[in-house]
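seq as requested:
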Amino acid sequence: MLSNVQTSKTIKSTKEKILEAALELISRYGYKGASVRKIAKAVGVRESAIYNHFKNKDEIFQEILKSLFSSDFSDFFEKKPIEENAKKGKKFLMEYAATVKLATFDPKHEKLFKIVLLELMQNKEVREQFLNYFYDNNIKKLSHVLFLMMQEGLIRQSDPMLMAREFFAPLFYLRLEVTLLRVDEKSTVTLSTMFEKHVEFFWESVAVRA
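struct tokens:
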């Protein structure tokens, strides 16, 4: 008989395989196109075995979305006090852009992002989570950092919310462009340095000159 630890590891391993297979299939065919039967076949188990770990396909999908909307990037602002980040000025913006870049070129994050793109027009819940994630967890917090940079005299006075959107939008577009190019198996080499170049360009536009 397996010990409790061994059994736990077996269950976890099977559950992870289900999530990995579902991630792959949903990123290819969308939520509707990835049936439980296809997921079970990809894992190499009977369809009934899926229900030992998840109630239904929607529960699998919610777990996958959690991987995106609860990623390392989502707690970026919590890793250090926001006042400390603001004092770093350009260095903070470089770190932020580097985090976006890391997620952009990460294979798992790419699949997650493709799922979001596929489902945005079909799934209201995905739209709401998406807007909350990118607005509340990024734009609002980024605008707070930029406001404090203005208070520190590092950047010129302006509307911090507008400035946050101006900084974030090109990074989001770069992530989208990389994903679209990879779908058609086209090179993304020329985009690998654009994240840093964007920060340089933005900083030159907003920095206070001594």
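Residues 66 and 172 are 19 Å apart (CA to CA).
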